[in-house]
Structures are given as structure tokens and as C-alpha cells.
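Appendix B, example 12.
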Amino acid sequence: MTEIHGAAELVLRLYEIRREDELRRGRDWFATQFFPSSAEEVLAAWTGRDSAPYRMVTTYWEMAATLVNHGAIPEAMFHDANTEHVAVWVKLRPYLERLREMARYPSYLSQLERLMTRMPDLEERSVPMLAYLELRKKQLASGGPPPGYARPAAADPAD
């Protein structure tokens, strides 16, 4: 097996892991319910009742970034095959420095940070994520999703 085929297998394995029920629920919570506005709110999620889904998502992407940073998966392949890590980064980046100070954990999410700060089109790929975050914050502030929104009963098994 060539190196590129091995890397492709790793990307596919990461995708399989993302489909595991518990991680899928954590990802759903992170994407649809977790909209921090301070490092304190992030820390509360990390250490409070939402600790399990928060840690599941953040450690998954930290692990995936580690594989890329150590050369197991080419960066371009990883970024081309994934988008969710951009959303996680965009959501946490504003609070990371203060969060590290508060937790006394200076290397927290350092693998993800290393990967994301090298991403050539990060700002471009962040634009729709930031727009979504703003929309969801407004929806949640007004009591939930817009009228007519029907949340699926179960997650899409193809995701």
C-alpha cells in the first residue's frame, strides 16, 4: 500500500469514528447548542454537565490534527476531506488563550491550533461558519430555530 493510500485509509477511519452514536450526539450538541460568548462559558462546558460532549468533540479533532501534524495524513487531503474542524476552531479560537490560562493548560488544543494556523484558506472557509454562528445565536436568543424549522428525528446515517 502506498503512503497516499494509507493516508486515505486513515481519513476514512476518522470518518467511521465520527459516525459512532455517542460522538455523533456530541457533534450535534457542539454544532447546534453550544455557542459560547466567553472563555468562562467554554470552561463551564468543559468541566460541567456538558463535559462529555464537549470533550468528545474537542479531543476527536485534537487527535485528528495530531495525525496530520505528524505526517500520517497530508494536510491538503485532510482539509479537502473535512469541514467540521474549521467550525470547531472558529467557535473556540476567540477564547483559547484565556481558556488555557484559566485551566492552567498551556498546550490545550495545540495540535488543532498548529494545523489551523497553517491552513491557507482558513479565513475564506471561516466566513460561512461565522455567519452560521451569528444566525444560531440570534435564533437561540429569540427562543429557538425559525418558524417552520423541523429538526430531523434521527441523524442522517450518511453523515
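Residues 116 and 122 are 7 Å apart (CA to CA). Confidence is low (pLDDT under 50) at residues 147-152, 154-158.
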